[in-house]
Every structure is written in structure tokens, then in C-alpha cells.
Amino acid sequence: MANKAKLEALLTLINTSARDAIALYEQYGDVPAIDQTEPHPLDDAVDQVALKSAIRTLEGACAQICTTLAPPAHTAINLVQVYDYACMRVAARENISNILLSYPKGLHVNELSKKINIEPKKLARIMRLLATRGCYNEVDMDVFANNRVSLILLNENPVRHMILLHVESTSMGASVLYETLKDPKIAYSYDPVIAPVMYAINKNGTEGTFFDWMARHDGQRESYHTSMRALNVIMGSLAVLTHFPFEKYSTVVDVGGGIGAFSLPLAKTHKNVKITIHDLPEALVQARGIWARECPEALAENRVQFEELNFFEQVPVKGKDIYYLRNIIHDWPDHESALILSNLRKALGPNSRVLIHDYVLGQLSRKQAAAEASKLGVVVAPEPLLANFGVGNMRAYQQDMTMWLVHNAKERTLQDCLGLATAAGLKLEKVWDLAEACVLEYSAA
């Protein structure tokens, strides 16, 4: 395909995918606007696979055509001159969105600065950068109001907790990534205790893994488990409740289930299922309180049980229908992941299924991607888009970096996943592509 023809094809993909997204929004009401001050009904829809599929193509094609047409220096400097995270930290830490709720017509930075004790001219620069990104509206000069994006930063929103995890803990690891690659004592190690985040924290005398560090800080641990609920909307992960046939099964084990980010919605949508939540004691203490408040009927009907489990040393409850692991395996390097899966395999009955819900890193090689698509049903981007959807799937690759920085772990390619699972005695039955992450369904080999 000639170069100009490739650009024309990308323009067609942009137009088609944008129209697909518009049509999906119109099914729920009006199409949103960048300065909209209310959430759209589709924002919290359980099944966003169709929307995410359209946005995956749209973002990938937009970025690819911009990179193709822009001067290389323009693109390269844009990769590094990015301070959005620092500004988001200020907004989240100072509860700016909550403050602006009382000022629907906007609040001048001079008044906002008095409420949060930040110099007004500096605050205006932060707010203007975020508004340029589409987070907050500048309704008049130096007067800012909430919009649909900034409402994500409200205190009660779990996504705010995920944002704080990234802008505080993860950013510490990013600042020392190069040093960890060059330190001869740790450069070739995948030990979680020397993940870049812990390398940075350990300068203060802290030891252990990131999870060990959180266990010693109640506020951090509670915020972390709350942030896991944010994955429901960030990843659109609750789509598994409508795409996988849970109605055919009666028992589900949520391995490493935390406070119930997955199993709470499962209990509300599939009341035929009895759930076992496995996790460490401190997580289950928080979980019991949340379930008593948000889903007391499941407790009263004995549809949920909380059982302590160290999945490196113990076997989950045996013989259940479904064993579900969302964002568990990606927290650990290969050695530890193999232990988890080996112990899990010991629990399986002949008809049990294992669902591993994680990002799966797509291949840039179209030949390899096509081979995986033909054998396993993995979705490949249409040409001339990069085979892995390029920037349309960028969060998977950023999340891979997050796992490295925080845990010395990783997101995995499909071949990586197959290698780990096969060694543990699991057989891949199906890949459920949910447009952002995938659910890999395994049986006992």
C-alpha cells in the first residue's frame, strides 16, 4: 500500500470508529461534549466492550496519523515533556473537584487558592494545563469549573485512588528506573523486594515488597483495595459478567479477591452463584465491612464466604466451578506466578475452569498477530493500523511498566501466558477479548 493510501485508510478508520462511538452514546442519550458538567449514562455501563473497541481503533489511528505526519522532533519531545501526572496529583490531593461542586458556574483561582493554600498564579497554570487536556473547564479567564472528566477526581470515586497510586507511589519508581537497570547488584534480578518503587522507598530503611509496605500502612492498603474497584470502569472489566456465561455455573472462587471489586457485582447480577473470596486476613477484614454495607443480602443468604489464603503456600478451596483471578498474575514475576498457578491447579475438578483476567500484550509483528488470531481468536487491528492497535492499546504497555516499577513483574504476551499455564498443567480453552483486557479461560490439562 502506498504511503498516501495508508493515510487515507487511517482517515477512514478514524471516521468509522468515531461514528461507531457516537452511535453508541446516542443509544443512551445525547452525545457528550468536552465541557459537559454531568456524567453520561454510558460512562458507568457494565458492558463497554463495543465502545472500547471503537475507541481502541480511534485512538490508535489518530495517534498513528499524527506521528506519521508530524516532524520527528515534535513527536519525540512530546513523549517526555509530560507533566499531567504532577498536576493531577495536586488536583487529587487538594480535593479541587469536591470544592468546585459548590461552584457550578466556576470559581476564580484567587478564591480557590485561599481554600487550598496554593499560590494563585501557580495554581492557574496547573488548572489551565488540565483544562487544556479536557479535565476541568476554564469558563472565564482564571475561572474554573468541573466537567465530566474532573468529576472522576471526587473523593468517593475509586478512580481517584488509582490516580493517587500512580502519581505518588508509581512515580517514585519511574524516577529511579534507569538506576535500577545500572545497579550491578540488582540489574538482572526480578525479585519484588527490589522493584524500582521499593528501591526508592528502601532509601528510607523500608524493606520487603510493595504489598509488605502497604500492610504496614493502613491508609495505603485501604486506598489500594478501593482503587481495585476503579478497574471496573478503567478496564471495563465488569463486561465479563455479561460475556462469560456465569449463569451456567453455581460456584465461583475469587482468588486474591480483595474487598470484592469483581465478586460484589457478580453477587448482584448472578444470584445463582455461591462465592468464595480468598485473600490475606487484612484484606478480608475490610471486605467483610464493605459487604455488610453494600450487599448484606448475599451474607444473609450465605452466598459469599471469606477464607484466608496465601496462594504461594496454600491450595484454594477445591472442586469449584470457576476460579477467577483478575490482575493477580501480573503482580508477580514468573517464579511467583508459577507457584500461584501450580497451587491453583491442585484445586481443580475435572470440569473446573480458570479465568485469568489481565492485559495481554499484542504483537507488533502482523505475521505473529495473525497466527494468534487464527488459532486462538485474538483480535488483530485492521491494516494499516499497527497490528496491536498502537496507541489504542497503549494502556496495556503503560500497565506493563507499572507492574515493573511497583512489583518487578509484568503484563504478558499470549505466548508468555501459555508458557506459564502449560507448565502448571492448564490448557487454554478460549480467549475472551473485552477490548481492553482479555479473559483467558483454562481447563485442567
From TrEMBL:
InterPro entries: COMT-like, COMT_C, SAM-dependent_MTases_sf, WH-like_DNA-bd_sf, WH_DNA-bd_sf. GO terms for biological process: methylation. One of its GO terms (molecular function) is O-methyltransferase activity. Keywords: Methyltransferase, S-adenosyl-L-methionine, Transferase. Residues 210-381 form the O-methyltransferase C-terminal domain. Transmembrane segments: none annotated. CDD domains: AdoMet_MTases. This is S-adenosyl-L-methionine-dependent methyltransferase.
